[in-house]
Each structure stands twice: as structure tokens, then as C-alpha cells.
Amino acid sequence: MTQTELMTQVMALNARYAASLDRGDLEDWPRCFTEDGMYRVTSADNRRAGHQASLIYARGQGMLKDRVQALREANIYERQSYRHVIGMPLAAAAAEEASIETPFVVVRTMRTGRIDVFATGVYLDTVTISEDGAALRDRMVVCDSSRIDTLLAIPL
Amino acid sequence: MTQTELMTQVMALNARYAASLDRGDLEDWPRCFTEDGMYRVTSADNRRAGHQASLIYARGQGMLKDRVQALREANIYERQSYRHVIGMPLAAAAAEEASIETPFVVVRTMRTGRIDVFATGVYLDTVTISEDGAALRDRMVVCDSSRIDTLLAIPL
Amino acid sequence: MTQTELMTQVMALNARYAASLDRGDLEDWPRCFTEDGMYRVTSADNRRAGHQASLIYARGQGMLKDRVQALREANIYERQSYRHVIGMPLAAAAAEEASIETPFVVVRTMRTGRIDVFATGVYLDTVTISEDGAALRDRMVVCDSSRIDTLLAIPL
């Protein structure tokens, strides 16, 4: 697999990831992960301090689907809308499994019309490439802000 | 045409689209569309409610150029500047004609120095690929905000 | 080199550029430039007015490293964090040396948790492609805002 093909696969994966969240097809979101895929959220400060524990942690399709189910029941996505803009992937290694770092910005639009930047940060991913395309074996979301309690409600 | 080539073509088209608007080369903007290309704007709420009517509608090079001409006469671009950041395209199908969904964010800078997020949403495109590259046969701009009256002045 | 390969190379360069600044690996930032590479900052207004002088100007690895050293000593990156989102490159020409125009947005997160759009604009680049990948021979940062005094502290 060439560098170009790898980047295309990862960009396609991120496009799918963003679309599933932003158009509210939440059930598509776990499908961006492998069967035992891991989703974690932490802050840049925590990470610099060497804290291993994540603020959010979900492993495997079961837990990922549970999160989505909880969001559905809480009607989170009816109150405001989110828009992910995901940047260029930076590949640290290119093999069957690649380490990728990708910046993101999430913009939120309230019912009142107010628009603000909700979150920024970087995805630290382990991505598996198969015939079906790329999938996340591990996505660690590192938020730039340390005040991320309100960021934890929705998948970033 | 491979998936990689399709994505490259669409990204190049979107780069041209953004640059034509943001550097004020408005006359280049209609050239991103096919001869009978359609430009439409609606809101996510309208779309969810099943409303077919668009808030803005222009079909064909004549109408597209008329819009640009009107903006020139109103000196819209002299008052503030806009910057599009267009995300990764998500291709629903890949043939001579492809259905593409692409997130966007438009940031506005006022003369006072104030910067804010002006609009976010998604482009729902039908893109034609020819020897000259990709062109828009239909771009439906779906804004995340429902308060889009102020968004209608400039092409999104 | 095909258009697809050129775009991939430029996107990879920009991913590296953004990551070096945003994760604070400032020493990696000069490595995005050629040996005699030039980094300049100006405003869109200055450019339209035909002013040749840049507000910031650094030429060659020595001056670029000096800038980074100064930032380290001033502890700039400890006070807030920045996140670049760099858009799709628009290639004006494709040869050994390519002219590329790429939009960018920089979002800033303060210690207080406040997030705002710090700067937007466009990179006007001359990019050299070699076996080691793409490198900047000249990056002219054109800011949309004319009030860019505060923008000059960190590399954009």
C-alpha cells in the first residue's frame, strides 16, 4: 500500500466518522471501529502529566453501541447540532496497522442560531487496513481544553 | 477511476470553489458548475421536515453569473472577508457521476478584527467527472443553523 | 508526478507543519522548510495595496531556528494551545517546484477553557519536491485580518 492509498483510506474513514455523528446516524459510528475497537477521551494536560486513565473509555462494539443508545435516549442531538472538520492525517508508520495523528475541530450550532467552536484536539489512532477499508482499532481523543466535562456527552 | 483519483478530483474542485469565493475571484465561482449546474441553499431543519423548496436557487451559468454580478454591485466582499474550510469528501457512489457529501465551515473576519464562525453545514453534491476535471451538476448547501437569512447574501 | 501524488505530498507536508506547531515540537517546524526556505507573514489588505514588505520575515534555517528558540524562552506555548486546520491545497502549477495556495484556520484554547478562532487566511507556497518529500522554499502567510499584531507571536 502506497502512502497515497493509506492517506486516502484514512481520510475516507474520517469522512465516514464525521458524517455518522453530524448527520445523526449514530448507529454508523461504532462501525468505524474494529470488533474490539477502543474509544478514549483525555485532555492534553492529562496526557502531558503522564496520567494513563482516560475520562471516557469504551472497548468493543457492545460498549460503543451502548454509548450511542444512551445518546438516543437522552435526545442529545435534538438540542443542538455539531459539525466536525477533520484535518490531514499524519502517518507515523505505514503497514497493516498504522499510527495516525489527525487534528479536529468541532463546531456547535445552538437552536438560537449561536455558533461556537465546541472542541479542538487531535485523534491518536491505530488504524487497521483490510479489504473492507480502514477501521479504528484505537482512537484516543486528546482535547486541547482541560475543561472537558461538557465535551464528554457526545462522541468527539 | 479509482477511489483515490475520485477523491483527489473532488478535493481539487472544492479547493477551487473555496479559493474563488475567498479571494474574491467571484467570476471563477460559476466555473465550478456544469453548464446547467444547480446551486441551492436550505437548512437541516427544512430538510428533515421534508420541505422541497430551497431558500436560494440558481440553475445554469446565466443565473449563477447574475448572482455574482449582484454581489459585485453590492460590494459585499469589501466589507468583510470569508474563509472556507472544506472537509473530506464522503463518496456515496463512484461512476461518471458521483454523489458526494462534504462538511464545511465558513469563518468571517470583520473590518474591526472580530473573527467568528459564520456558517457550518454540509454540501450534498452531484459531481460530473470529465477530462477537464470535476464539476458540480448540483450543489445543495445544507446549513446547520436555521437562522440563515444572513447567510444568503454570499455563496456558501 | 501525478496531480494525486503532488496533492498527497503537499497534504503530508501541511500535516507535519500543523503537528509540529500544535503539539509544541517547535524544533520540527524549521524542518518543513528547505535550507534557504523563507517564512513571511502579511495581511490581505497589505497585499491588495501592493505593499511588498512583510510584517514577519525569516530566511534560512538559522533565522527559522532563532524564532523557535525565542518562543521557547518566552514560554508562549505554555499559556495557551493552538490548533491548525489546514484545508485542501490548490495547485497552480505542478513541476519540480509547485505553486500552492492553501486555506487555514487557527483555533486557540485558553487556560480558562475559552476557545476562539485566532486567525484565518491562506498560505501562498512555493514547494520543492524531492526524494525526501515536499518542503517549503517560500511560505507567505496572508492573514484575513488586518489587526495581526497579536498574530505575530507564534508561527502561523
Question: Which tags fit this structure?
Answer:
homotrimer, 156 residues, alpha+beta, seven-stranded mixed β-sheet, 4 helices, 28% helix
Question: Could you please describe the fold and organization of this structure?
Answer:
- The structure is a homotrimer of 156-residue chains.
- By secondary structure, chain A is of the alpha+beta class.
- Helix content of chain A is 28%, strand content 42%.
- In chain A, a hairpin with a 5-residue loop joins strand 4 and strand 5.
- In chain A, 44% of the residues are buried.
- The model of chain A has no long low-confidence stretch (mean pLDDT 88).
- Chains in contact: A-B, A-C, B-C.
- Percentage beta strand of chain A: 35-45%
Total beta-strand segments of chain A: 7
**What is the alpha-carbon Rg of chain A in Å?**
15 Å
Unreliable residue runs of chain A: none
> SSE order of chain A in H/E notation?
HEHEHHEEEEE
Shape of chain A: globular
Tally of DSSP helical segments of chain A: 4
Helix content of chain A: 25-40%
Class from helix and strand fractions of chain A: alpha+beta
| Largest pleated sheet of chain A | 7 strands, mixed
First-to-last CA distance of chain A: 29 Å
* Biggest interface and residues each: A-B, 26 and 26 residues
Write the layout of secondary structure elements.
Three copies of one chain form a homotrimer.
Chain A: H1 3-22, E1 33-43, H2 44-48, E2 56-59, H3 60-74, H4 76-79, E3 80-86, E4 90-91, E5 97-110, E6 115-130, E7 133-143
Parallel strand pairs in A: 1-7
Antiparallel strand pairs in A: 1-2, 3-5, 4-5, 5-6, 6-7
